[in-house]
Design brief:
single chain; about 210 residues; alpha+beta; Type Iii Antifreeze Protein Isoform Hplc 12; 2 domains; 5-stranded antiparallel sheet; transmembrane
Amino acid sequence: MSTFSRPRRAFWGDLRFLIGIALVGVSITGVWLIVSSADSATPILQADRTIIQGEAITAADFRVVDVSLGALTDDYLQPQDLESGQVAARTIAEGELVPHTASGRADDSRSTTLVIESSISIPEGVDAGTVVELWQAPLLEDGRTHDAPRILVADAIVAEVLDSEGMLSASRSAVEIVVDRAAVADVLAAISGGAALSVVPVGAGS
């Protein structure tokens, strides 16, 4: 009576089996990483509007978004980080994730706002958050003519362009600007001295 031995499985068959196991493992690992990444998302504050430097900030100015920032998470404001008396340390653009460096205490703020009347109309595109230069043309001793224009404040920020209704001339506009407190005295002196003030967007080639 003849005895038949079972044929051995080919090596390539074992290799395909091992490759299949490896692919299943990779797939499981990928799913785990995706789930882990979603679980590690952190609620971060995102500006709901443009917030001007020096402006008080509250929860109403932000929406909360879940973001995975990894090691950078602690650099950004979370809902629990908001406190009363906080202001924007710089202009925060609408839609921007807010870093801690963009907020500060009102007591520490070095900026304030002033309303000035521009001797020229405010250019189109200048609105809240626009960085501008404030130019002055000092009034000469005759009280009728002005000296050559010069920069008074090189980096003011527009807080609001005000309604020009009621101005003496259609070519004149009022604007609220944010300036460093160190520049306040110079601006007020220019206003009281009758200087012609003009707001010019930075980079306008003035």
